[in-house]
Amino acid sequence: MDDKTSILKDQLYAACEEACKDNPDRLFSQEDLTALNVVPAKDVKKLLQIVQILTKERLFAPVHFHSGLAWRLRPEAEAAKYQALTSEDQVLVYEIIDSAGPEGSWQQDIKKRLNLQDNALRKALKELEIKRFINQFTTVENTSKKMWIKYGMQPSARATGGPWYTDQFLDEAFIDALQSVVVNIIKEKGSYRSTAERNVRSVSPVLPKKGVIRGGLSDAAIKSKKRSADAISKDDPPSTSSTTSKFRGAVRLPLIAGYTGYPTAQEITADIVKMNVAKGQPLKTEHVQELIDILVWESRIEEVKMGDRVGYRAVRVSKHNPDIVKLDSEDFWEARTNGLTTVPCGKCPVFELCEEGGPVWAGGCEYFDKWLA
After folding, report:
1. How far apart are CA 59 and CA 50, in angstroms?
2. Cβ count within 10 A of residue 201
3. Residue 334 CA: distances (Å) to CA of 69, 247, 295
4. Residue 373 — very low, low, confident or very high, per pLDDT cuts 50/70/90?
5. What is the pTM of this model?
6. Residue range 3-76 in CATH 1.10.10.10
7. Of 148, 209, 319, 349, which is most buried with the most CB atoms under 10 A?
8. How many angstroms separate the CA atoms of 47 and 54, rounded?
């Protein structure tokens, strides 16, 4: 290699280092290397010669794509490790492990790719391990697999299970505790806590006006048909949907339609970090999103579209599932009911006589007073 080629090689490598400051994993195609204006654009032969030298010195790592060949920059300290290897088997094995990154390489995959004998592969792995170029680790997917990774590199969350695994075992207690924290945050920010007394009987000051009854019924006929509210309550069986005693005190109620303050995954993550309940685990938004997805699948929370954002709110607890939460609990949400079947008009004995200004009308109905109490 002449002096001019050596200078161009150093300049091209320095230009690639400068271009990789913002993106260390950047790939360089032939067009990208030409655009660095180190080698003349028309001198493709010289560019190819320099790239071959950098690849041979392990400063460039070739990457094959369907669209062509590209190169990834390798730090000089990492390239020096290849020069310290004493056999071709060690070089090939280390190159596979190096390219695998934090995912690591399975020993059987290395054997198949290089078509090495067991003795030769074990010898190469042992030499690399002694030199502290690689070390062995196990994944949560299969603890019997012999996986290898570059020395000092942390395995990926996929290999270790992320924050949900402790010593390669799923930490179910930790997951359940964090799920409860997530639900509580969503309830606090995505619902209204009402502390009003809800069993106080309201009495309407409006009384029905006296007048002529349609249909020409006599007073005796009216009296025979009309029953008081107390009489109805004595004759009819008690309704299971009564809310007089169940909703006494504090309850959580849904917020108004169009509310845009429901917590997002990013906001929930920030709250958990502030609360410092993650046992020192570096929780990220994608980790909390996994918990949220499980809660959505379990129908404990639901998504709410807020423009270009996605928030979450707790799902209303039904009366038909009292085992989920106690009916007198603060977290019991007022259940949905069918107004057409629960309104007093549905079972009023004098419904046909009800009219504005008549002897029976909604403004002074004693049944409504009892129903709204």
Report:
1. 11
2. 9
3. 63, 8, 21
4. low
5. 0.48
6. yes
7. 148
8. 11
